[in-house]
Amino acid sequence: MHEPKRYCSEPWRYTMTARESQFWRKGDRSQRQRLLECLAARVLGEAVDHDRNRFVIMDEGGEIVAKGKIQAPNLDDELERMDRAQNRLN
Q1: In sequence order, what E strands does 1-90 have?
Q2: For residue 59, how many other CB atoms are within 10 A of its CB?
Q3: What global pTM score does this model have?
C-alpha cells in the first residue's frame, strides 16, 4: 500500500495587495526586507495549511519578488532542544 503524497508540487502563490506593492516599489532595501519577512511569515503558514512545501510572492502586477522552500525541521535537533529546555525547568 502506498503512503499518500503529503505535499502538492505546486507552490503556494501570494499576490501582494496594492498597498503592499506600492510599499515594495517605493521602499529601500531594508524596507523591502522587512516587508518580505512579514509576508513570508504569513505566506509560510498559508502554504503549510494547504500542504505545499514551496511558495512564491508576487507584486500586484504578477512579477515574482520572492520564492521560498519550506524545510522540515530536523527531528533529532528538535528533540535535543526540547530535552535541554526540559532539563532547565527541572
Answers
A1: 12-15, 54-58, 64-69
A2: 18
A3: 0.69
